[in-house]
Amino acid sequence: MTSSVTLTPTPPPIDDLQGWLAGFTEPTVGAELAALAACVILAWGLTAVMRRALGMKDEKSSVLFGHRLFDGVMFPLLLLTLAYIARTLLSQQLPLAVFRVAIPVLVSLVAIRVGVKVLQVAFPLATWIKPLERTISWVAWGAMVLWVSGLLPVVLNELDQITWKIGGSVLSLRTLIEGALTASAVLILSLWVSAAIESRLLRSAVGGDLSLRKAVSNAMRALLMFLGLIIALTTVGIDLTALSVLGGAIGVGIGFGLQKLAANYVSGFVILAERSMRIGDNVKVDNFEGRISDIKARYTLIRSTTGRESIVPNEILITNRVENLSLADARVWQSTVVSVAYDSDVDLVRRLLTDAALAQPRVMRDPAPSAALSAFGADGLEFTLGYWIADPENGQLNLRSDINMAILKSLRGNGIEIPYPQRIVHLKPGD
Predict the structure, then answer these.
(1) I need a labelling partner for 107 at 20 to 30 A (CA). Which of 57, 166, 204, 431 fits?
(2) Is residue 13's pLDDT more than 50?
(3) Residue 136 CB: number of other CB atoms within 10 A?
């Protein structure tokens, strides 16, 4: 690789700076400021009306509108459009000074909002988003300053003079920077389209439909990102024919080091396509029981009733034994054991136990709860109260506690003794 410097004349840094600054003292500046203020008010009103009409109020996952009125892309985009129209109309009658600054500022603002909002929607939990957002802001505002000051052509000309020869191609620093910016714009656009498709597909979807739409959403995002990457590489100037060698290397890597990773991704699509497990199902994997909260491309999130969350690779869900409790029957049978004194009324105890279970609205009436004399214990009669519930995801221990407390209160209110272990010790004479 060799570098060369080509000496070419550069344009003047700033074209008539004094005349441009003097334009701000003209009486026509007031008319420009009034027109710009009118554009702001009109853009604000149009954004509010569109936001209300589309039902996007407080929609955090929307790129166009965001959580607040000025948080999305729609407001600066409308403002830029209206400002451009106003500048075109005023330039025919007035010398412009304010709009020469306003237009570049608004272009930079639109670029920042698009980049930031798309990344926030596509990767809401990623920690590297914040530094990337600051980078986008610095690049956009720096380009705006160069544009307004008239230094942008000078800087581009200087960057164009720094060249590298790679094989038979000659690349300049300007070409690399422009290619990188174009590639970033293409990838952000791909993320925007994929996020919009995912939001539309997953809206109001439940059960099996949710899982199927999740699979389609993941496939669409992967396809759009692949197409965006191809277009980005083309804009940078990379010959796509050279990717055949890279593809072979990736294939070898998948066959060896990336085998598990590839298996997890493939298993994720199989799970979503077959709908053997769906979001919301109660499953048991490796003695870990919980509800599926989300199915990612590489792993599945399972949340237990205690609040613990387990990350299970998708390959395990395909190759290992998994109990899907929701597919068989969503109902769960619970029981509690109660001991009473031997002189207690058996029929009364059974009725009290059954009434304690029926007093809880979560206990199913069909099949009805039942109490049975299950054992003759060493300290008293043992009764087993069994009942069914249809919502185990709402907790099981809390329901058992409520039923036990009701049983204790009922037995005490009816004078039924709950025995405790007693032992008789016989002492021999002389001991």
Answers:
(1) 57
(2) no
(3) 19
Check if the beta carbon of residue 406 is closer than 8 Å to that of residue 393: no
Report the C-alpha gap between 301 and 141 in whole angstroms.
Answer: 40
Backbone angles phi, psi at 389, to 5 degrees: -130, 150
CB 252 within 8 A of CB 185: no
Angle at the Cα of 360 from the Cα atoms of 355 and 362, rounded to 5 degrees = 130
Asked if the bond preceding 367 is cis, omega within 30° of 0, the reply is: yes
- Does 35 have pLDDT greater than 80? yes
Ordered structural domains, the chain, with CATH: 12-161 (no CATH), 245-328 (2.30.30.60), 332-413 (3.30.70.100)
Query: Would strands 332-340 and 162-166 be described as parallel, antiparallel, or unpaired?
Result: unpaired
Task: Tell me the per-residue pLDDT of 286-305, one tens digit each, with 9 for 90 and over.
Answer: 878 888 888 777 788 888 87
Question: How distant, in Å, are the alpha carbons of 57, 285, 300 from that of 330?
Answer: 36, 17, 20
Q: 356-373 b/e with 16+ CB inside 10 Å = b? A: bbbeeebbbeeeebebee
Query: Whose structure tokens read 């459009």?
Result: 81
Q: Residue 340's beta-bridge partner residues?
A: 381
* Average of per-residue pLDDT across 304-323: 82
Q: Given this model, what pLDDT does residue 95 score? A: 76
Do the Cβ atoms of 136 and 111 come closer than 8 Å?
yes
Q: Is 147 within 8 Å of 14 (Cβ atoms)?
A: no
How far apart, in whole angstroms, are the C-alpha atoms of residue 1 and residue 158?
20
**What mean pLDDT is predicted for residues 209-227?**
64
Which percentage of the chain shows pLDDT scores above 90?
12
**Mean pLDDT of all residues in the chain?**
75
pLDDT at 193: 73
